[in-house]
Design a protein that fits this description.
Helix 4 runs parallel beside helix 5. The longest helix has 20 residues. About 45% of the residues are buried. The chain is of the alpha+beta class. It is about 30% helix and about 30% strand. The structure holds manganese (II) ion. The site of manganese (II) ion has 3 residues, from helix 6.
Length: about 270
């Protein structure tokens, strides 16, 4: 699901190493146009928004979509998102067809550790700059990065044609064992069965792992089940959760060469 296609009007366009579109949503949202057809349609419908932009930048949205990997694929699945609120300022880029590179600065050491694992094991490229109200605690920053990641995933997936849609992984981390299962269904649902004691892992309170994944699946509009079969050490459990979610997502977003069109009998996801 693309938030802009879901009916939020585009209110302005600006140049910033490529085109950014500002959309009127429930929050202040600025996006990179990821779908060239949709971008052309927006330009045709709102020519006045693009009058002041350099001709070449407005015509080449793809230039801005791939800051981390070369533009070699036909249909790029890479998106950048910016989100500003009174609590956090976040800039996030994701490339679904990356190599697992991560460029992170969230100000929360353990969270950066988890996001690095997420990139590595999902093979997505992830660049995140977050400035949050860490003087309060890490909660807003973790949750808002989750919201941005979910939005970016949904937008990068586009209409989801030709992908596997489902993914699952059971991952051990020493004494801990965690299963994550994903359905990129277009419906947000997070079923969480992993009890985490309120223990500080650096400045990251362990139960924030649930807040993060709830935010990702909810704003990414996908179905996520997380189940911890056994585990004692919070660091290990959370790490197994991130690795399992990474592996499950990797599978779900991957191309299925035998699937033509959208993998749903409804025809739409
Ligand atoms: Mn670790």
């Amino acid at each position: 699901m693309d938030s802009t296609k879901a009916g939020f009007p585009v209110v302005s366009a600006e140049e910033g190493n490529g085109v950014w579109l500002h959309v009127e949503a429930e929050e202040d949202t600025t996006i990179r146009p990821s779908d060239p057809d949709w971008f052309q349609q927006i330009k045709a419908e709102n020519p006045e928004l693009f009058e002041d932009l350099p001709e070449n930048s407005a015509n080449r949205p793809e230039r801005s979509q791939a800051p981390m990997t070369p533009a070699s694929e036909k249909k790029r699945r890479a998106v950048a998102i910016e989100r500003d609120t009174a609590e956090t300022k976040i800039r996030l880029e994701v490339n679904l067809d990356g190599t697992g590179q991560a460029k992170l600065s969230t100000g929360i050491g353990f969270f950066d550790h988890m996001l690095t694992l997420l990139a590595k094991h999902s093979l997505m490229d992830l660049a995140i700059e977050a400035q949050g109200d860490l003087h309060v605690d890490a909660h807003h920053t973790v949750e808002d990065v989750g919201i941005c990641l979910g939005k970016a995933l949904a937008q990068a997936l586009g209409d989801k044609s030709g992908i596997r849609r489902f993914g699952s992984a059971t991952i051990p981390m020493d004494e801990s064992l965690v299963t994550a299962a994903v359905d990129l269904s277009g419906r947000p649902f997070c079923a969480w069965r992993a009890d985490l004691p309120a223990e500080m892992l650096g400045t990251f309170n362990a139960p924030l792992a649930e807040e993060f994944w709830r935010a990702v699946s909810s704003s990414g509009a996908f179905n996520l089940h997380v189940l911890c079969h056994q585990g004692k050490n919070s660091h290990h459990i959370v790490e197994a959760v991130f690795k399992a979610c990474a592996r499950a997502l990797r599978q779900a977003v991957e191309a299925d060469p035998r699937m033509s069109g959208v993998p749903s009998t409804k025809g739409v996801l």
